[in-house]
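Consider a protein example.
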Amino acid sequence: MFGLGMQELLLILVVVLLFFGANKLPEIGGGLGKAIRNFRRSSSEPDEIDITPNKQEKADDTNTPPKA
């Protein structure tokens, strides 16, 4: 995993624990999990706003004179 061994991962965990404190770690993990979940959801869903005109709309928008 990225060339990190068990000792390096433990050292990173200890530094994070000292920096943020034990009470903040669950909040940080929850926020990170929500961010990853939202990113996956947004990358797999189609765009919400589709501005490309349909073929029907293109045919209706042509400047043809009205039939008499």
Notes: The chain is about 60% helix and 0% strand. Helices lie at 6-20, 25-44, 55-60. The mean pLDDT is 79. Residues 25-44 form the longest helix (20 residues).
